[in-house]
Amino acid sequence: MREPVCALFNVAVNQIARRLMPKGWDVAEDAPDNYDALVRHYNATGRILVWSGASDKTQFADPATNHAFRAWHDYRHITQGADFSREGETLTYEMQRADLAKWFGMHHPFSKWRHYCQRLLRIEVIGQLDYADTHGGAFPVDQWKFTKAELMK
């Protein structure tokens, strides 16, 4: 079993997701795959529904944390009115980046890790989007290895 790339980032993801969505989120094999469907589901249920697939080789090394990340990410798509275009993904990333800055406030005992976790966030959102743009829309199969390689750049 792999270890997460950064256990503290896993903690941040889970805590931020729970803070923003105290009633939780749902996970299924059949989840919204476009912005309009995401918003319709949220408006109808008050919950985010995230895809369960491709969660075994992520930087989190834990499917439940990957699901929490997806829920947090999709929640920010909704709150920002940001579709799944590059512009929408960038806006969503920026809001998540602000969430991390708030979570790692100046008095947080691990505030010195904020920039590292924000770098991991950038790799997870923008880095994978860049990869998909150059690989015919396909995302990295082994996202854990992808993240480790991106950190070496």
Keywords:
mainly alpha; 6 helices; about 5% strand; 2 strands; about 150 residues
Give a structural overview.
With 153 residues, the protein is mainly α. It has one domain (7-151). The protein contains six helices and two strands, in the order H-E-H-E-H-H-H-H. It has helices at residues 7-20, 35-45, 63-80, 86-103, 114-134, 143-151; strands at 26-28, 49-51. A two-stranded parallel ribbon has the order 1-2. The chain is globular, with a radius of gyration of 15 Å. 31% of the residues are buried.
Short description:
Helix content is 59%, strand content 4%. It has helices at 7-20, 35-45, 63-80, 86-103, 114-134, 143-151, and strands at 26-28, 49-51.
**Helix and strand composition category:** mainly alpha
Describe the biggest sheet? 2 strands, parallel
Count of beta strands: 2
* Proportion of beta-strand residues: under 5%
Q: What letter string, H or E per element, gives the SSE order?
A: HEHEHHHH
Task: Give the number of helices.
Answer: 6
Question: Major sheet: order of its strands?
Answer: 1-2
What is the percent of helical residues? Answer: 55-70%
- Gyration radius (Cα, Å) is 15 Å
Oligomeric state, counting identical vs distinct chains: single chain
Outline the secondary-structure elements:
Blueprint: H1 7-20, E1 26-28, H2 35-45, E2 49-51, H3 63-80, H4 86-103, H5 114-134, H6 143-151
Parallel strand pairs: 1-2
